[in-house]
Write a sequence for this structure.
């Protein structure tokens, strides 16, 4: 059991456990902050998959942007919406949640079955990548390569997504502004 | 090296948790958090497979794109939630059942 394995199991335990806590908790504030823990653990998993740039982006965009946005939104949505949360039923497994629980668990079992049968490391293209030395090694600096690819291979998607981001943010500002005649 | 299957199993667990959150929560913000959980599970898959693509970096770059898309989606969704709250005085998805009042 190497150090990397220990780190992997620790991170994945933290991610899955905090995800389950989000599903179990009634308190909106707690689930937002547990979502923060999940995102941090996922950034750690990205590092272990030798994608350090993606991990940094995850922390900057998700934790710095989206989480602050969510906290803002539920602060703006007022006390009544927070009070409405407290009066739901308090058990984790209740009869009204049973279909959802069944769906989630059965879907997980199906996916687990498929993943264990497929055995990802034996896929043909993965074997080809390993044979052709096309695997990111733990010490590699991938940022250079990502930057060059972003400006050559993926230039069109990059520009399209920047326009889309601009449009979405302008649209969000337009939707959420105060209107005089509502 | 951690095997690909381990990453995929963690991601499947996160995805199913996200499905459960989306289906059961009575608050639109929590439903949004569930959707983000599912997106993150998909991102983990992309990153795990992206390790076997050193030259083109397909998996990692698509993860970057999907993180950006998630940011845009969240901004729009939260604006819509604020508007729904202004109109209906509630953000329970099962109570807001008409498009026009």
């Amino acid at each position: 059991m190497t150090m990397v394995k220990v780190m992997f199991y620790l991170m994945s335990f933290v991610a899955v456990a905090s995800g389950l806590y989000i599903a179990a908790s009634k308190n909106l504030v707690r689930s937002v902050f547990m979502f923060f823990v999940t995102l941090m653990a996922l950034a750690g998993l990205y590092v272990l998959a030798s994608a350090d740039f993606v991990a940094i982006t995850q922390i900057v965009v998700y934790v710095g942007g989206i989480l602050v946005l969510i906290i803002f939104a539920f602060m703006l949505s007022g006390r009544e919406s927070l009070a409405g949360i407290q009066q739901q039923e308090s058990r984790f497994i209740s009869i009204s949640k049973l279909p959802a629980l069944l769906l989630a668990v059965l879907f997980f079992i199906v996916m687990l079955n498929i993943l264990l049968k497929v055995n990802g490391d034996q896929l043909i293209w993965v074997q080809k990548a390993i044979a052709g030395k096309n695997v990111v090694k733990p010490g590699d600096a991938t940022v250079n390569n990502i930057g060059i690819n972003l400006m050559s291979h993926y230039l069109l998607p990059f520009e399209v997504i920047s326009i889309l981001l601009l449009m979405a943010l302008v649209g969000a500002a337009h939707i959420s502004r105060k209107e005089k005649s509502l | 090296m951690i095997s690909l299957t381990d990453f995929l199993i963690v991601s499947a667990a996160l995805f199913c948790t996200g499905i459960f959150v989306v289906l059961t929560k009575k608050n639109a913000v929590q439903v949004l958090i569930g959707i983000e959980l599912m997106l993150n599970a998909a991102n983990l898959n992309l990153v795990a497979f992206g390790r076997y693509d050193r030259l083109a970096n397909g998996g990692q770059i698509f993860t970057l794109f999907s993180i950006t898309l998630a940011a845009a989606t969240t901004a729009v969704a939260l604006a819509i939630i604020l508007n729904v709250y202004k109109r209906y005085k509630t953000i329970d998805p099962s109570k807001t059942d008409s498009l026009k009042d």
